[in-house]
Amino acid sequence: MEILKIETEKKRFLDLLLLADEQEDMIDRYLDRGTMYVLEDQGIKGACVVTDEGEGILELKNLAVVPGGRRKGYGRRLISFLEDSYRGQYLRLQVGTGDSPATVPFYEACGFRRSHTVKGFFTEHYDHPIYEEGVLLTDMIYFQKEL
Asked: For residue 56, what is the domain's CATH number?
């Protein structure tokens, strides 16, 4: 297993990134200014993008794992990599997600705690309704963990 930093042609991984953020223009808002990593384990299994949000906050903007690679520890491995790589450079790792039965328990199990909510984020910023596991996402729930 290897985690590689992607510095050029990040859009070649767009299909993977769209698994976690299903609207391309939303990905465009952070992809160029973000730092991207891919996890390879006999092929690409996952990717993530992080951005510097100021005030000591590193934000995980996208964390995607290929469907056949889910529940195999790849997402947790990427988060651990970020923690190890950025500890001492940032105070907190932050992630925003919908109030979904799939993602909320995952981030909580990874040690994140609820921080704040942005009401109506998904309905205001996406051009179509976003559903995850049958749940209509409306608010962005932010989670943070200390680095």
From this structure: 3.40.630.30
Task: Measure the CA–CA gap between 11 and 143, rounded to whole angstroms.
Answer: 27
* Residue 131 banded pLDDT, cuts 50, 70, 90: very high
Give the CA-trace dihedral at 112, 16, 1, 83, to 10 degrees: -30
Q: How many domains does the chain fold into?
A: 1
Nearest to 12 by CA among 40, 60, 47, 50: 47
Q: Report d(CA 60, CA 72) in Å as an integer.
A: 20
28 vs 45: CA distance, rounded Å: 22
Three-class secondary structure of residue 51 per DSSP: strand
Q: Which two tokens stand for residue 56?
A: 């000591």
Strands (E) located in the chain: 2-6, 35-40, 44-52, 57-65, 92-98, 113-118, 130-132, 135-137, 140-146
| pLDDT tens-place string over residues 78-101 | 999 999 999 999 999 999 999 998
Q: Is the pLDDT of residue 30 over 90?
A: yes
